[in-house]
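Progress against Task 2.4 (sequence-to-structure conversion) is shown through the following example record, which the project officer requested during the mid-term review.
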Amino acid sequence: MTGTPAAVTVSLLTRMLREAFEGPPGPWTYFTDTAPGTGVFETIGGLSAAQASQEGGPGRTTIAGHVHHLTSSLGLSTLGLRGQSTSRDRSRSWTVSRVDDTGWADLQARLRREYESLLVAVETHAVWDEDALGVAIGAVAHTAYHLGAIRQRLRPQRRGGAPARG
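Structure tokens generated for the chain above:
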């Protein structure tokens, strides 16, 4: 039995990361809704800083908090794929909960940069052993979890105003 070629692994991982952040690639998906606007970037893109800072859900977290946590996590995944050691202490990744307009724009820009860095790390990773594959699959699963948490948070807000996406 032969292993999966690295090119197939890279292609699959990058497609899943793109789906999570940029939305569905076409009429089918791996895990998001098929409607446009269901990726992380479009889901949070139209939110104001006030909406992103509104507490809710279990733990009274905010969307800004989820985005900051996800940004930090992507950075750690990139470091892991590059063979650098990372801390298991994720407590600092939840230190942001409220943002102003500038802070919200900066946070979204940092999320995009970390996403793009992770894509490059996946695309250039040479040896897909168990550790590397675990880091990459973990990043996809972790993003899907937080995307779901953010989208569930938005459903009640959008009922009375703008239509919910997806």
